[in-house]
Amino acid sequence: MPARAVRAELARVESRQAELAGARWEYADALAAKERYLTRSADPRGAWLLSLAEERGRLTAELGELRRAVDDADAAGEALAEVLDRLGTAADWSAFDTYFAHGIIANSIKHDRIDQAAEAAREADERLAALRFDLAALGDSEPAAPRLEFGAGFRFADIFFNNIFTDLAVGRRIRDAQDGVDRSTQQVDELQDRLGDQIVAVTDRLEDMARERWRLLAR
Amino acid sequence: MDFSASPASASGEIERRLAAASQAVREQDLCTQQHGQLSAREGGPG
User: I want to staple A180 with a disulfide (CB 3.0 to 4.6 A). Which of A69, A149, A151, A157 is the partner?
Assistant: First the structure.
């Protein structure tokens, strides 16, 4: 086909595409009209369509909650990674202060890094609380989201601002905190996997239901 | 949709609307396919 003819045909197709721009919306609307008609009629398909619509509404809401939980789990994971990063820096300064320096400057920097880790931990705690809220909305089938584990009664601010531990004790506390954050991170990772699996299952079910609805309406 | 009409006519009207919409969607898919082919030809070696 000559180039001019190709361009002319292309223009014709584009014009037709513009005319058909609302076709999918009109088809969806026509299906919805038929669905409404059938659900108000004595047709046995009506009851089945109503049942599908009810389940679709429930699953769509669940999917929204699952996606919100995934977003919050991602945010919690990032916050925990930040805590680990800050704790790593604090641990380095703690070791330097303990074994090499003992001076006020190293001690001051160490406490500054601990302070930063504490701030990151507070942020992570908030993210994990949001995640627990999401999981509660998803029902009892979900395991509880992790809490930051810093050991019994361990509070960054209380311990580090008061300066009541020796350098060695502070170093040990930092390592305990790192272990706790590691465990929380692992739990969040596992939770993300489970949430991902649940999203796939719910999405598959919704697609099956959409096919079933279409099959009922197309008859 | 006028549901005050008889069930048979309401049903018939819905089915006609659905058939027309279904045909339009098929034509839209065909147009998309043709557009791709024509664009490739237009952009290809002349």
Answer: A149
- CB–CB of B42 and A10 under 8 A? yes
Asked whether the beta carbons of residue A26 and residue B24 sit closer than 8 angstroms, the reply is yes
- Does the model's ipTM exceed the 0.90 cut? no
Q: What is the pLDDT of residue B1?
A: 42
Chain A contact for B9 (CB, 8 A cutoff): no
Closest to A214 in 3D by CA, of A98, A45, A21? A45
Is some CB atom of chain A closer than 8 A to the CB atom of B33?
no
User: Taking the model in full, what pTM does it have?
Assistant: 0.65
Return the structure tokens found at B15: 């089915």
- Note the pLDDT of residue A161: 43
B30 touches chain A (CB under 8 A): no
Structure token pair of residue B11: 């049903």
pLDDT in tens, A20-57: 999 999 999 999 999 999 888 888 888 999 999 999 99
Distances (CA, A) of A174 to A124, A187, B33: 16, 20, 62
Q: What is the pLDDT of residues A106-135, one digit of tens each?
A: 677 777 777 888 888 888 888 888 888 888
pLDDT beyond 60 at A215: yes
Please check whether residue A185 is in contact with residue A81, taking contact to mean a CB–CB distance below 8 angstroms. Answer: yes
Chain A contact set for B24 (CB, 8 A): 20, 23, 26-27
Residue A46 contacts residue A40 (beta carbons within 8 Å): yes
Å between B3 CA and nearest CA of chain A: 8
Structure token pair of residue B27: 């034509």
Evaluate whether A193 touches A167 at the Cβ level (below 8 Å).
Answer: no
- Under an 8 A CB cutoff, do A27 and B31 touch? no
